[in-house]
Design a protein that fits this description.
The protein is α+β, with helices and mostly antiparallel strands. It is 42% helix and 22% strand. A 6-stranded mixed sheet has the order 2-9-8-7-5-6. A 3-stranded antiparallel sheet has the order 1-4-3, with no helix packed on it.
């Protein structure tokens, strides 16, 4: 409420065109730009084979998400979203993805959200994803998104519509509880889908008007395509296409194009993702806030330690 949200901070000092864009295009569906990025699979295959020798098995999806997380951190405008014509900077980086335990028509999908700081190495990204997938496939009925969807699904149609109107109203006026934002896969930095497992090429997936997803990335099936070098010599390349759907209101075309190129750069040089990025140097208000948080944490740990010693006595 009053410009404050659980998942974002209002962006100030915008350029006139940046501020005006959401008013000209109030709905996310009005502002979708579609873009295809081709990826040479050889560097990915070489990296996967190299890491497999040390007992670690990476997938294209994990590498894609690691590259996307790094890009969202290094290109912060791509991690913005728009609510009621106001631009917000998201407080965290999160990726939503649908997971199907078995590739059958009747098997339910799980929609998961992975949270990151943005500085994680590829090893850390893999660990976060595997933990979330394992825990939620094992206890699918306890999954927050599934439980919320199941509860709404039990309502009669008119009550379901009413509930969604209430959710939209709360979201529009920045009153949607943090617990519901975390349960919603549509409130996320990026939605990723990997269509290679079902042998489909990339698609341009729509951006949901509900929630605040700004980017949708779709990994397509592997292809072998003819390419020519500068001398005109033709060769065959193993290639994967990624279809991006982008909300153009959060940043301009140049910023987006450089951001998508950065994803490509990391996918074609995956060794760069092996190192964790250093903590940023804090100054001013950010430093004061961090010191306050550290003091609170220290007091909390002291209280817990006292309780434990009392229990032992």
């Amino acid at each position: 409420m009053f410009g404050r949200r659980a998942d974002g901070v209002k962006v100030k000092n915008l350029l006139i065109i940046e501020k005006a864009g959401p008013y000209f295009m109030p709905q996310r569906i009005d502002a979708c730009n579609l873009f295809t990025q081709d990826i040479d699979c050889k560097p990915l295959d070489d990296f996967i084979a190299q890491e497999r020798k040390s007992g670690v098995h990476y997938t294209y999806t994990e590498l894609m998400i690691a590259a996307a997380v790094r890009m969202l951190y290094e290109r912060p405008k791509t991690n913005r979203f728009i609510n009621d014509c106001v631009i917000y900077q998201r407080k965290w980086i999160c990726i939503s993805m649908n997971v199907k335990p078995r590739l059958t028509d009747d098997d339910d999908e799980l929609t998961l959200k992975f949270y990151f700081s943005g500085r994680e190495s590829i090893q850390e990204v893999k660990a976060i994803m595997e933990k979330e997938i394992f825990e939620n496939i094992k206890n699918a009925t306890e999954h927050t998104t599934t439980k919320t969807a199941a509860l709404l699904g039990k309502l009669p149609g008119w009550m379901f519509k009413l509930a969604m109107r209430i959710f939209r109203f709360l979201d529009k006026h920045n009153m949607l509880p943090k617990s519901l934002i975390h349960a919603s896969p549509f409130h996320t930095s990026m939605y990723v889908t990997d269509l290679r497992s079902i042998k489909l090429d990339k698609i341009y997936h729509h951006l949901y008007n509900f929630g605040n997803t700004t980017i949708f990335a779709s990994l397509g099936k592997i292809k072998y395509v003819p390419v020519s070098d500068r001398s005109g010599e033709i060769s065959v390349r193993k290639q994967m296409n990624i279809g991006f759907t982008l909300d153009e209101r959060v940043c301009d075309g140049l910023y987006y194009s450089n951001s998508v190129r950065l994803v490509r750069k990391y996918l074609e040089n995956p060794n760069e993702l092996k190192e964790r990025l250093p903590e940023p140097e804090l100054t001013g208000k950010a430093l004061k806030k961090k010191l306050k948080q550290d003091k609170k944490l220290e007091k909390k740990n002291k209280k817990l330690a006292k309780k434990e010693t009392k229990k032992k006595k």
